[in-house]
Amino acid sequence: MNSIYFKNFIVTAGMVLLSFLILGTAFVFLGRSFVVNEKRDSMYTNAEEVAKFASAYRQEGELSNWNLRMWISTISRCTGNHIFISDEKGLVVSCSDMELVCPHIGQQMSAQVMLALGPAGKLNQLTNLDGFYDSAYYVVAVPISTSEGLVAGYVFVGSDSSTIVEAWGTFMIVFLAVAMVIMLMAVCFSFVTSKRQAKPINEMAFAAHRFARGDFSIRVEDEGREDEIGELTRSFNAMADSLEKAEELRRNFIANVSHELKTPMTTISGFANGILDGTIPPENQRKYLAIISSETKRLSRLVRSMLELSRIQSEYNDELKKTPFDLNEVLLRTFLVFEEKITSKNLEVDVQIPEESVIVLGNSDGITQVIYNIMDNAVKFAHPNTTLGLSLWKQDGKAYVSVKNTGDTIPPGELPFLFDRFHKTDRSRSLDRDGVGLGLYIVKTILNNHDEDIFVTSKDGVTEFIFTSTLKT
Asked: What CATH code is assigned to 3-166?
């Protein structure tokens, strides 16, 4: 039995037992009080009925009338109480006992008992009536009144205290039996509930140990619960998905970086060793030193791009602060940066930008980086003497920017991977010695952080990138 389950079960069971202990203690006192009060009320009712009947007999005859004695004997057998009647001075004149010579008749109540009756002529106490009974009885007494309002005698009704204890004991046995059944059910319910609650927690603990060893494939079974445990299970599985995806991205990133670094480093090492050991003749050394310089610069650009990517990802981890800016102005300013490259390739430019300002919400520096990277690719891969297109329009609360060039068609199978890190199509590997394969990934990262979209199409040599930006309302 695991510790969480065991502790949960012990705590729940302990609370149940403590609750029943408190409840049982309360029932002991309340139950006894209930039984005594019920018995007292019943005895008072008997006494008052006998007093009324005795008052009627008193008007017709004496309280020692045989018929009156037979009647109180019948009531005594029905109720289990002992009944006797005394005159106003405390002399017992009638009794519910059926012996011909009743030992109680003729006895005189002591002065102490008569004093206890008080002015009202009533008694309600546990007593032996100053020796009248051999043991303690619960006794109630009421007066017998005449039509003139005088006291003609008293009716005493007594019940052996053991009878009350037995009644109370029966009550407690029933209570204890019911309590034990309920407690057993509560413990079973606690057992099942504790086990059900502990199961996903145990699975999470096991999964956490697996995570510590680098295995992010394990998941906690989701049983469709709608309580806090169910929410915790779903959150845990979502975290596991994120960790697994992050681990996969990390491995791919390391593999891609290793691949990108290996090629130029191998080239640099091979040509440098060739120059040092004389394999490359002196007349060719300048040529190969230029290649080494070019590869070194490419390594530097790769490192700068990776640092830039890390900065962007770190910067946009916090809440992105979007401010309004003129997208029209940013497009034109960025376009002018490529004027020299456009001229050197003899490209014609088709610019379709509105004359009025197009105000959008976002990070101005981030969107500038997006436009720069897309236009850099467009100019780089455009065939000489072709047309470079730049368009901006508004539609359904969004601004759309299109950058279009004419060059080699990107194969359809390559389009879904253009925005992956270090991805290059075959044509760019042969033509783009300056690229490191992070430009479009940075574009996608920035636009994702802005909750914007980017689309790319390539058909019949015409490649077009279109991205969106939210208009200020």
From this structure: 3.30.450.20
